[in-house]
## 1
Amino acid sequence: MPGTALAELIRQVARGDADAFDAVYDQVAATVFGIVRRVIRDPAQSEEVTQDVLLEVWLSAARFDPGRGSAAAWVTTLAHRRAVDRVRSVQKEADRERRVAAAVIPYDEVAEAVESSLERERVRRCLGSLTELQRESVTLAYYGGYTYSQVASLLGVPDGTIKTRMRDALIRLRDCLGVSA
Amino acid sequence: MSRPEREAHTLAGPYAMDAISEPDRVRFERHLAGCDECRREVAGLREATARLAAATAASPPPALKERVMAAAAATRQQPPLAEPPAASRSWPAFRSWLASRPGLASRPWSARRRFRVRLALAAGAAVVTGAAVLFGVSNGSMQDQLSRDQASSQQVAAVLTARDATMRTGAVRGGGTVTIVMSHSRRELVFTAADLRSLPAAWGYELWLAGPGGDRPVIMLPAARHGMAGPVVAAGLRPGDHLVLTAEPSGGASRPTTPMMIDVVL
């Protein structure tokens, strides 16, 4: 089952297939844990949220619609949203201040524990092709868990500008990474 | 495209990164519902964010997998599907995980002997409300039922994955096996029963918490599927409680009226 495509595995999970879920776990756990920990930072909370996300994959597998995007995007969207919800609901201001500093770093530091160094390198290179404002918008929003208006005030730029930069940045990243939409 | 629509459209980037406040999210999702092009665009942007996520991949601690698999095995999926979830399959998976989990030793009880495990509650801890939190089939609307199922799934998972979870299994007088996973810190337990003897029509199994303060009904067990009833959650455990199972008229009784089929000191 390791070679089976993620979308097909999730279809099987939707029918209650525990073996397929085991295989899904193996395929996505590192990505889920990685992004959740990147956003939340705290290891214990990151584990908790990772667990919630993976359980949600099991619970709501039937809601995955391949017509609306890839299985990987479905899972990472669940993961990122949960992580963001967590930091927005529980993190104290002081923690958030510390995370501002941390959130700005990822572009250079996108590599931590090297798992898929090739992917990491490709993403790092594509982030590098953005303008500085685009790159900061994306890293603060996606890795830092900030809303666009928080990003705007952190960077001292109007809201409207940041919204546009975020969209432009993702379009450039999408093209640079060769993602088929 | 009208002006508000154009404005909403610029939220595609923030939306794809969850960099959006709740009111903005609601507004944008309303816009998305009527805009095929926007949905395609968001889908494309999300493929890019998925790659941003993949670039941070890091292996979680191995123990996490055990917890996730166990929680999944004991958790009903949503929404209702054409085929029923493989309860017959997840039950053994659940049992074998529990049996293998270090520190969560399975401790059978005998019909006569009672194990004493004191609830690790601080003296003077606030007394929880008398009624145990119930989950189960009732006369509520479908929507009610769905939300209750979800609440319970999360509750079950929370108990199973609690750091202080302990498990016990035992035989039921009259036939069947019961598994209890209890978290003292949460004052909750998850109960499942396998292969209970079938009862006459209009009768069912009722679960009770019996303690110094009296007997509290927990729940009428839902009908067994693939031989397995539950999981159900009993909340609000108090020091000195026993868990009791009896057969009662399907409407439920206010106190046990038939012999106890299990009587476990929690």
## 2
Amino acid sequence: MGTEYLAVAFTILVVILTSLPLGWYMAKVFTAQRTVLDPVFLPIERLVLRLAGVDASQDQNWKQYSVSLLISNVVMWLATWTIVTLQQYLPLNPDHIGNMEPVLAFNTISSFTTNTNLQHYSGETGLSYFSQMFSVTFLQFVTAGTGMAACIAIIRGLSGNRLTTLGNFYVDLIRASVRVLLPLSLLVGLLLLSQGSPMTFEGAAHATTLEGPEQTIARGVVAPMAAIKQLGTNGGGYFGPNSTHPYENPTPLSNLVETWSILLIPMAMVWTLGYIVGRRRLAIVVFTVMLALYVPMVMFAVAQEAGGNPAITAIGVDQSTGSMEGKEVRVGAALSALWAVSTTVTSNGSVNAMHDSLTPLAGLMPMVGMWLNNIFGGVGVGFINMFIFIVVAVFVAGMMIGRTPEFLGKKVEAREMKLASLALLWHPLAILVGTAIACYVWATTADMDHALGWLKNPGPHGFSEMLYEFSSAAANNGSGFEGLGDNTPFWNISTGLVMLLSRYIPIIAPLALAGTLAAKPASPETAGSLRADSATFGFTLWAVVVILGLLMFMPVAVLGPIAEYLALR
Amino acid sequence: MFKELTQAVRFTVVTMLLFGGGYHVVLWGIGRAAFPEQADGSLIRRGDGTIVGSRLIAQAFTRPEYFHPRPSGVDYNAAATGGTNYGPSNPDHLKAVQDRIAAMTAEDKVSAIQIPSEMVTTSGGGLDPHIPPAAAELQAARVASARGVPAERVREVIHAHIDPPTFGFLGRARVNVLELNVALDEAFR
């Protein structure tokens, strides 16, 4: 396991170091400064804006910005829902896949429109190449861009002084997707192609195996999606088992590139904030707080997986390479644990090992990542979620020392706290109430296991499967304890609704918050001000995140993973 | 409002063509030009052009003269992939592990503690093309006796097919089962 630990540390270090220049590049893109990639990508940006008829000079206030965001997302939803429900009649369907059933399509398209990428279908049997390209991959670009646009608008609001506008939604979206996501996706797609990720319009390959029987090997337009699903914290896989499938993650090198791609933009976004607001110290404090939550989670999960499954050790098999159920030999247990934590703190949701088969406490870490949902977080929305916690931490600290709470020289008052609380409380409400309803339905159905076919695993682990599903939907994550039989009307409709509400409430409320903060005058900071860019505030923020973010999930954690851990010991 | 709507529709159409179409065409072109073999799925072909399988995709091996891959939760179905999703405490899971141990100890004349856990657990996609070198070593005697060749010569073929960790520390040392079996067929025709 020694070299595997080294690989974990190396991966984290490489992402941190590369996130710095990317953060600087993104700051330049979003403040319309010149960059080295302009000769190639600026013309594309201008072409798209011209063809779409966007007036780039028209700035929007927070309401107009939110309206554009919502209406564009509604139109994208309708267009892609139409594609998947009619895919049988559309081109590029060499494996003759039928139309997606409307309720499953509601779940699927809501999932991709909200950047969640929860999948109740399996790609190789459920979607045509056309749908994979024009519905899924298309949405993976524009929804990641939507999150980044909202984040940039909020950052502008924070840095403004008596500002009434936050920028233009379409301009921000196109900058994020054409000048940040597109170049990176081309680079990562190229690397994945070189490692063996397919990119072909031909249908499945038909092999006659060495022992004689036929094997049908599904392939397709894999590499392009594998790239953007990682970079845009989308996570939706081309194939059902995501990046555990060798075509989606062929080698240790592709595994490094994909893990890097999960964390890169969420980390860089923190630095972008620092550059745009002109407060690098604040960026360092926020980044350090996030790292001080992330690294211990990784270390804990890696240690748990390296220890193996006690039940299998008891049988007497060599588990010196860790717990290997649901994992790949080319990746190994440690890098699987690193991925599991990274993909859930960032609301990515891709997997390179089956989370349902993780050892109990290692399986708790992805849930903690989704419950917090603000450690680096989804592209754009991760910082938005942390911003809510910052507002609360400022308020708490202000109350404790008896001063008017201020952030970046702006007073945080009742209206701001109400909006922050709305965004903050929606998340646990959706998860806990959703899980409670699922448990009620399960428990009150006669002969539930046969009648419902929901739970693959008995006991506390079965509870964890339901809890994980709602955590994933509410965090717009998309990973799952996939033993859950989730392609049923109950799960398709309930998680579909949770995903939609959990996407737009935590974006619109902070936009409103930033809108009101932007309009306030920034008062100069004095010796008496509460400084957000200090170590003291960093500690406060860390504590607020842990206490407010996790405490309400303690009971369900005990009922699920912790109970299973104690039973297994 | 109407202006907002037409704006959104135009924007959706244009970006759909760019990211759904253009982006894929560029990567497809690069794939065809630079990595045609990988882009097609890393297929292994016989002399007559028929496909044996993919280097990256496990296929079923049950005969004693072939090395066996890791167990698969989907019976090596590469058109509908997946893991077992068994939780660590699931009795069905532990039963399956014990059955695999029993099968392997009987077939390869080894004791349970010698068996790497990879050989009694399933992979995430059910298509893991690799096994650890130790798992190949364990099967060498059986394969050699089924083929009527010295075990030493089979071990030589294994050693020639161990992929070390990338750059010495990324991933683990491993043996590609399909490539190993193809090489065996060539070496001991």
## 3
Amino acid sequence: MIRLVKRSSYIMGLAAAVFSMSAVRGVAAQDTTFKGVMISGTYDPLRDKIGITILPVAGAYGDSIRTIISRDLDFSDRFTVIAVDSADPNALRPAAGGTLNYPLFARLSATAVVQITSGGSGLHVVLHDVGHSKIANTGDFPLSAAGLSRDWRQGVHRVSDEIERWMTGQRGIAATRIAFMRGQAIRIIDSDGAAEITVPTEVDGGSPAWNPSGSTLAYATHGTASRILVLDLATGRSKTLVGPTKNSIYLTPVFGGNGSTVVYSREGEHGSDLFSISVDGGNAAQLTVGRGTLNTMPTLSPDGRRIVFTSGRSGPPELYIMDSDGSNVTLLTNYDFSEKNYRSDPDWSPDGRLIAYQERVNNDRFQIRTIRVTGSTPKLLTNDGINEQPSWAPDGRHLVFTSTRSGDRQLWIVDTESNRLRQLTKSAGSKLASWSARLGGQ
Amino acid sequence: MMRTSRIAVMTIATLSVALLDACHKSPPPAPAAAPATRNNDSAEAARRAAEQERLRREEADRLARARADSIARSEAAARDAASAAASLRSTLTATVHFAYDQADLQPEDKATLDAKIPILQANTGVTIRISGHTDERGSDEYNLALGQRRAAAAKAYLVQHGIADSRIETISYGEERPIAQGSDEGAYSQNRRAEFEITAGGNMLRKP
């Protein structure tokens, strides 16, 4: 008999992902009575998620491909992945020239079934529409990199993102990476927490930020010869963009102008101000006139026309918005002169609507909030531990941030629509994350 | 100088007596003296020799003592100089502290900086590096900026009081290098600081 495991409430976080996987294995071990078919999964009828099944993948690295894509679709927070297993995987796949057993998957509440064949040059993907009992889409995805390598994984993630686009009209965020700091090193990790590496940087490098194509990282070195550099990820070489300048510290670079400029903060002996410089070098343009106050941590609107930044010009750090040439500065966060608040580390969402930032809530710990660009009552997203340094995923829905909720500083990801959480990193001292844009083909 | 002269005089006296003594012993004077006189002379000579030996010993002791005293005195002087230099160095590297999220100098910190000014003025070859630090609260990146501002505030005070700009370097470590561990105000207040490091000319510090 077919067994469908339903859970009335969705269990959040990494523990849920692990638990549901072990549940799949557990069911697989005990129930093989009906045509060898078993089903399990996390299913919540209250949430508007699409039930989807990934069939066992035939061919090279089939199990890994199926695991990666199932996890990607789960992490997208748009799908309920219904895991189906069988002692004979061929029982689930359509026979050669035949059709999928649509009634079976309809009974399992699957809206879609993904059938993947792993061949020599890549993956052949068939998306079945269960409701209409027909093939909705097919695609071929080249996968030339060595099996299980970082590039190969990105290739598999791109399949997940395309399936999501076929189903929802919006490309997923699986084929993205997150740059962050651990200790004095800049590291990069895949969006699903796999394939973590250290990238080569100059000494004391920090505050990494992606360019729009994901080919370079801007970063700042601190210490005695502080600079802004751009690291070419293909060659591993860093190029100094600006600095060092005696008695000055360079901070918080971000790309602007669709990758043609870098906006950063430089602090000499009279406060810090924001500057903009071409990625080809040349003269920097000063954007703020802080008159001795601190003006740092810029983040640009998606159209590049406005900048939100942190400033201590009124006392405690608050968020301000200005035009990208430095004009029309206005206070974004609701600062009251009697308040001793602290709001910093803004990041402008890729859809342009929201700004995520950290705020000391009730004069205690930092928590993550989002506020509309037009100003509004900010939404509080966290309350467990210290939560800071938010960075948006390219879908404008997920945020990566630093949290102490598990004890030490780790990167976590929150779905701002469902508040579902998962832990991204597994090593202490991770911080200052920057989420890449969607990464292109290999 | 005085002591040297006195030793010299004593030395000359001793040598003169020794010379007289030598003259007396050889060769015998002519004409020969009467036996009684000769006996008296012998007793007198022995007495003189004993006296001479006593003086010689005393002088040797005195010289040894003087030498030992001189070594002790120069050692003490070196110790004094070293402790004076250590005291100058500790004044020059004394840390100043800041209030939460502030880079303004408090009155007691101005006093700490005031004490450094005459030492810097008397030792024009000395250069220093001021590093600004913050407590662990606050944004990592904003704290790097705040640390720089604290270092710059301490430097500006010294420059306003006549120390050449070129002799003072500033740097920020933000919250990366706490001196006190812990998450309470006791630790925070120690960590919100500017440190002073001598980068050149610190070996021969002169008193102002």
## 4
Amino acid sequence: MGRNREARGRQLARVLRGAWRARPDAGGFDGAGLPEVLPLLQRSGSAGLAWWRARSAGAPPPVLAPLHDAFAIHALAAAMRAPQVAAAFALLRDHGVDALLGKGWAVARLYPRAGLRPYGDIDLYVPRTDEAAARSALDASGVALPVDLHVGFAELDDRASAELFARAAVKRLGDAEVRVFGPEDHLRLLALHMLRHGAWRPVWLCDLALLVETLPPDFDWAYFTSGDALRTDAAVCAIRLAHELLGADLEGVPGSLRERVLPGWLVPAVLRQWGDGEFEPHGTRVPMRTELRRPRGLPHALRVRWPNAVEATIGQRAPFNDLPRLPFQLGECLFRTLRFARSAPPLA
Amino acid sequence: MSTRAKEVARPRKRRDGLVVEALPEETLVYDLERHKAHCLAEVAAAVWDACDGRRTVAAVAARAAEKTGRPVTEEAAWLALRRLGRARLLEAPVAGPRAGPFTSRRDWLKKAAMLGGLSVASITAPTAAEAATCIGRTACEALVNVDCPGAPCCTTGANPAPAGSTCIKQGGGSRCTCR
């Protein structure tokens, strides 16, 4: 079963190889194997990129049609979402709050076409001191914007807030101005965020591939690798993973980072995750406190919450080395159970 | 000529309640009222764009030909208008000419087969793009507002949510909602 998942994951990786480029390389594209991984591409939001690659490889219309439909839906969703990004920034600015945008539109804008990289919510990051003002600004509008407000800087909290803002870039979005993380911070954020979620979405790895292939000439690798050493090593592993699985060109990456040897478990773990058709990502699961009211569904609830080796490594702040991952996975389970027990109110 | 016939002779594109994304080879349209997505091929998009309510069908065809650099006959424009009308992308549907050498549907289709770029394809399964990463509207609305996942809501199924909506906390409410 694990082997099947890994094989499907590998097939999916072959489909997405180079798919983020303006002109993806047609070489090695296997249209025959595409139907088998189509549901995986669709559910992980990677079907638009698969369409882009398949189209450039001259795949026949029956292969392209379902992928194109997904791309079209993503492109329209992006057209609807973009004004909301601008509106959220305008609201915050009106209330004197400076925010940084990460993931979502901030990376989707770099792809050759809108819709190739879908995104759902608007990830805004504000300093802890601005939390109340930001919430009040977003609530005051009376319009429900799909904002995921991050208080603090999540995976970048080993950097000073002032530094993050100083390195931020202002990008135009229609008539509005949107402040996004600087390239070094964004690459690090995307890498660590992907690993924290077990790298389950292939499109996250495409993000890294795209970023490392389009680095600005003044990209500051010394700054990128500064901060928490464990996080830096994890982010470097993620970049290396983009090369191993998707063929990202690491020419612009310093040799010392490019030559990082990945632990033997990492590639198979990610491929198994990509090939898992039963996976229920965080955010779509029924909350655990609801599951506890119907014990028959509990085994399933626990199974879908079993952390893969990647998220357990990040969750347990373990190094990316060749030691077995099972202890970290068990530790992560225990940690989550304790956290849930502390936070959950008593069952009615 | 009746009033209706006059309207039909000068078609006008619908503007309200649509999200339009123009791409190099196609135009994508989302109907916010009917929650349907359409993909207009190059010529159909040019015909649609030319429908300003003042141009005759012949003028629409000429404008589309000018814009695409491809020959667009009046028959082709009529066929595209018929398809656009069916997709509810015109202010009023077009009935087509009552008589003439190209009035039969078979004739139209035969001519259309020779001309590319006229398709107006409806995308009927948006779940294809969001399956498993979306949360059903019913499931979303069953969650208490501290558990709202912020995930996209499914736009199909028994209780479809508005396109582009996400499962989020509603101001002042105790439950999540798809907005």
